[in-house]
Amino acid sequence: MSALRVAVLNWRDRRHPGAGGAELYCERVARELVAAGHQVVLVTSRPAGTAAREAVDGYTVRRLGGWMSVYPLALAWLARHRRGVDAVVDSANGVPFFSPLVAGGTPVVLLVHHVHQDLFTRALPPLLARFAAWLEGPATRAVYGRRTVVVLSPSTRTAVRRRLHLRGPVRVVPGGVDTLAVETSRSADPRVVVVGRLSPHQRLDSLVVAVARAAARVPGLELHLVGDGAERARLEELAAALAAPVVFHGRLSDADRDAVLATAWLTVSASDSGDWSLRLLEANAAGVPALARRVSGLRDTVRHGESGWLVDEEGAADVVARLTDALVTALQQLADPQRAVAASDGARAWAQRFSWSRTAEGLLSAVATERARQQRARARGERRSGNDVSVVVELPREALPAAWDPRAATSRAEDRWSVDGPLVRALLTAADEEDARGLLRRLHVDPDQPGVRLLVARHADVVDAARANPGGRVVA
């Protein structure tokens, strides 16, 4: 793809005091796009003490207004600069920017980090919650029409379809990791480390209670919270009231954060909602297994029995009790040195399948999908959204030519090939069975011969191209 000028709209950037996973995603994608030769401007809000314009890792940050005024100000900025923009990534944190209203013919990709319908109900007054839900659902559906949507996990893809009823093709593009180089040096005593914002939806109060209860069964247990946020004071009061062994570190530099993370036996998410969890994946990359509730998004991030453990949801009244029991069981297993090494290796192996460069490739592929959809619509008045089905191809290695090279098998960067001994497996994104049969014919493979299988991809396949072959190598 030729060099593009990309505008990323997100209500906060990483310098914002409330920055979290969505900001990390946008920042890392911007950095990778610049490294690939593209120009990027991140349009965001301006908290106190930050510059209106700043260069970061080769891209430009343009800060405008506060947490609400940034939306109309960003639209005004885009209206003025749209002739100098080749693509817009419109990041929805509950409410999108509605950039199609001013983007003209510029391709717009809607990036949905998480569906907020339930969170609005819990966190906002009834009238405001209904208005926010309308903005996220019917208003977004009307403004974005059949434009391409990017989500971070299969769970959110399902929610986008079933709850928001968005009509455009939906592409799953998980986030990557930055902590693969962190060396594990776990503490002598059992330690749980949680990195991230201390916000209400993280349900860290449940974790503090669970740790207080588990401490009686796991001698020496400590919970270390790295980060700050609106919940800190309440969590400190709760920990003190329960005499829970909790250490509050506040916000740390990346190096200091990684040093604390390296001492962990386990990381935990007590959240009852969310999406692809970058903080759990980054803990995995540092060799730290994860424990999380089996809820939307988290059940995609954590591979049960491989990168950590999932706690089944069976009755809301038992949440803390179930979390406590699962925490104790996991720490008891990790007390065994051999099990601890196996769990750490499994966590690292899972995280190594993801990278920010691949995330950026997936986002660029979504931009290409949207551009092609617009061109078809202008040329033929075509209303269909484009293909958001994915296909898994499995075939024996011996069926392929001797000189077969997976990197030359397809010109599409988003396709993923893995090899596991005699089996070759490919995930073809935005492709149907006929596309797969055509690819096989170009490889001089008869798609009807025994041993060749063409399957519609499942959610787990879309997240991980080597999922069905845990020992397989992702080679392209």
Structural overview:
The chain is α/β, with parallel strands linked by helices. It has three domains: 5-172, Rossmann fold (3-Layer(aba) Sandwich), CATH 3.40.50; 191-351, Rossmann fold; 389-474, Alpha-Beta Plaits (2-Layer Sandwich). It is built from 16 helices and 19 strands. It has helices spanning 21-35, 70-81, 100-103, 117-123, 126-144, 154-162, 204-214, 232-242, 254-261, 278-285, 298-301, 319-334, 337-351, 356-380, 433-442, 459-463, and strands at 5-9, 39-44, 53-56, 59-63, 87-92, 108-112, 149-151, 170-172, 191-195, 222-226, 246-250, 267-269, 290-293, 308-311, 391-396, 416-420, 423-428, 453-456, 473-474. Helix 7 packs parallel to helix 8. It is globular and about 70 Å long. 47% of the residues are buried. The model is unreliable at 466-476 (pLDDT under 50).
Topology:
Layout: E1 5-9, H1 21-35, E2 39-44, E3 53-56, E4 59-63, H2 70-81, E5 87-92, H3 100-103, E6 108-112, H4 117-123, H5 126-144, E7 149-151, H6 154-162, E8 170-172, E9 191-195, H7 204-214, E10 222-226, H8 232-242, E11 246-250, H9 254-261, E12 267-269, H10 278-285, E13 290-293, H11 298-301, E14 308-311, H12 319-334, H13 337-351, H14 356-380, E15 391-396, E16 416-420, E17 423-428, H15 433-442, E18 453-456, H16 459-463, E19 473-474
Parallel strand pairs: 1-2, 1-5, 2-4, 5-6, 6-7, 7-8, 9-10, 10-11, 12-13, 13-14
Antiparallel strand pairs: 3-4, 15-17, 15-18, 16-17, 16-19
